[in-house]
Amino acid sequence: MKIAFKIIGVLLVLAVGAIFVLLGGPQSLMFRRHFDRLVKTNNHEAVAQAAIAVIQGTTNQTLFMNDRLTNLPPLIAMMKPRYVSVSPDHMVIEFHGGFDHFGFRINDRDTNWEMSWYTEEGRRSLLSVGKGEPNGPANGSQPIRSETNQTSSAAGSRR
Question: Which residues lie across from 85 on neighbouring strands?
Answer without folding.
Answer: 63, 92
